[in-house]
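Re: duplicated header lines in exported structure tokens

Our pipeline writes sequence and tokens for each protein into one text file. With two proteins the header for the second block appears twice in some exports. Here is an export where it did not happen, for reference. First protein block:
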Amino acid sequence: MGKGHGIGWVWYLGILVTVFFWGMSFLWSDAVLDQNVPVFTFIFTRMILAASALTLFSLLTGQLQRIRKGDLRWFAAMTAFEPFLYFLGETFGLKITGSPTLCSVIIATIPVFTLIVGQIFFKEKLSLLNRIGIFVAVAGVISFILIGGSLHTEYLYGIAILFLAVIGSTGYTAICKRLIDRGYNACSIVTWQFILAIGFFLVPFLLFDAASWTPAYLAWPVLRPILALAVLCSGVAFVLYAACVRHIGMTRTVVFLPLVAIVSAVAALILGQDTLKPLQMVGIVVAMAGVVMAQYTKGETDNA
């Protein structure tokens, strides 16, 4: 199962935890937007909370590394891709479409783009079966959503915006791997990522939302989902994601991202926000089969 030998399963468990939190993130974000919180107010608050929690954790555990000379530009570029570009695409796409499930299926296309980046820039080795598995996983998720009837022509603009998130995530993963290869640990990468993100989102917040800010945006019904997003999705999940990129490889990590859509849809079902059709179960099975195919290695190691 790639790197890690006897404890390799830990990193696969880690990416599954990440997938769960990121799947829930669409519902938590939708809950914030449903309360008419402006987009930049929402994201800026999330960045401050995430950066604070990550800095405290990294300092207490002694894992925070200084950014070495010459690497600041890479950290800035990584932050520009994600969270800046990614969160703009995801949040505005969600606001326009009003569909967490639709948003999650667009995000599910990320492994296809990451596969291309991994092959071109990092020479990651994947067998034909692995490559087929990635596309089968994505196809399973897309069929799951199509059967549910969630895609409509009026969402085309929102879908276009959502692809900014796809570009952001793909660029982020590639640069994150570069920084890992330069010796930075997962906590340091993610902590600096969100510290820098405060600066990225400060300007649009001041330009568009600061004048209309009200203490109501800190009310518990608003703050609760933002805290969940900041601590679980931006903190825990991003650190796990970066660690998994290090230990099981970039492409084998992102191949799990199609399951984010499954988590979102199933969570919406459990919460009574959606219904699950029998044929959608087929989509789940196909997606899971694709993930298994993408992980099959015959003992070779990933080029992480």
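Second protein block, exported in the same file:
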Amino acid sequence: MTESKQNKFFYGWVIVGISTLALLISNGLSIGGIPVFYKFVQGDLVASGAVPQSEIQSVYGLAPALTFLFAGFLAPVAGYLLQWLKARAMMVIGCFILGAGLLVYSQATTATMVYLAHILLGTSLGFVGVLVCSVLVSNWFTKRRGTAFGIVLTGTSFGGVLVPQIATPLIQTYGWRTAMIGVSLIIWLILLPAAIFLVKNRPSDVGDVPDGDPTARLAPETPAPVPTGMTLGEALRAPLFWIFTTCAALIFYAIFVVSQQLNLYLQGPKIGFSPQQAAGVQSLLFGLSVFGKFFYGYLADKFSTARVMLFSASTMFLSTLAFLYFDSTTVYIFAVLFGLNYGGTFVLLQLLVAEYFGLKEYGKILGAVTVIETMGGAAGTIITGRLADADGGDYSRAFLGLILVTGVSLGMVVLLNLMRGKTDVVHAS
């Protein structure tokens, strides 16, 4: 093997870049960035008489819940489809569904059209979201898979940073309908062509090997270690599983409510932020979550993951105490503390599934956990919307409830730490 061959650029890093871009755009347009449109859509629906003022917050409790539910429940379906379709084909289909969802949304005149748009947004995440991108990157990397994953998963947060900053000026200049069509061009002009022309499913498609390691062909074949741990059936019968998933559902309750409805709270009468100010807070939250993912991932490599999770859950609970005295100053204290720890808990929960239940059926167990997390998050946005409607559009009481939610989740993390001795046995077995 010549030196030039050994030093050639590895195409896997192009795949990492496209996968990061895919998560930035798909998550940014369906979850992280879409809340900047909510207040304007609400205004049109109420003004036209399509939705009574007394019910509009409930519409925007159910709508994001549909996105999360369809994304969560379609994840196992996407995993099955990947046995028959290549990742590139899945991503192309996802681009069309995501683009269609935004086009439907831009023409919404009823709550039913809003719901349909959110269903399409959630469905798109099953095709061009985390699962498909993770499988694609796994095909290209073995030794450097952790680094590749760390880069790619930042896309889920960067979407929430960038999309609000792009969309908000467009909304204020051209109106929300034109702005939504405008941001959808990111899909048609950037992501879709990248998926069609640049995505290669495996290194063999370009005559390469995983990690671009020229010695991989010469390395002696050794038997792969047999994964150990629980089966899905064993996990479902274990009290540990239900304590863990209840804890995860409560954490996602808080995460989904903050990511989807804080923007509406900030623009309400109590805080009175402008759309630009509210978008700035949302970008701050998602931006800090990027750092939180790296920071807590690093701490988990140095210390017990369960102990790191205890620290993160404690800080998340402390951040929600800001809602007792929520104003234009404490909102930033909340955004910093919650943003860091929302990113941290997202990573730590994935790691703890492997540590508590082993790798024998990790994918199946993680899928079950994901479904329950999603249900918790969806319940959060629905409950929050209904409480806000009951209080005349005021989100104060609904967000005070997050103190209870994060407090109970912290108590469960404490319980999981007390059960750590048993989980160590599972992890070591």
